[in-house]
Design a protein that fits this description.
43% of the residues lie in helices and 0% in strands. With 67 residues, it is mostly helical. It is elongated, with a radius of gyration of 25 Å.
Length: 67
């Protein structure tokens, strides 16, 4: 999920309201809103690796000889 500007704006406003509508901390509210939203977004799971026994290996050092 992508975090949008609107999502940050809404969360920052919620923080502003929670602080009692005290002005002067808009940048802090914005940064905190971003941090909170990023913490909520699940990270992409690590890609699963195929077991070595089922993969086909090709040697990078293999050369082709011409006769």
């Amino acid at each position: 999920m992508e975090i949008t500007r609107d999502m940050i704006e809404k969360k920052a406003y919620e923080l502003y309201l929670a602080r009692g509508r005290v002005d002067g901390a808009d940048v802090n509210d914005w940064l905190e809103a971003e941090r909170l939203l990023r913490a909520e977004v699940p990270r992409d799971p690590k890609p699963t690796r195929t077991p070595a026994s089922s993969t086909k290996r090709v040697s990078a050092n293999k050369t082709t000889r011409r006769r």
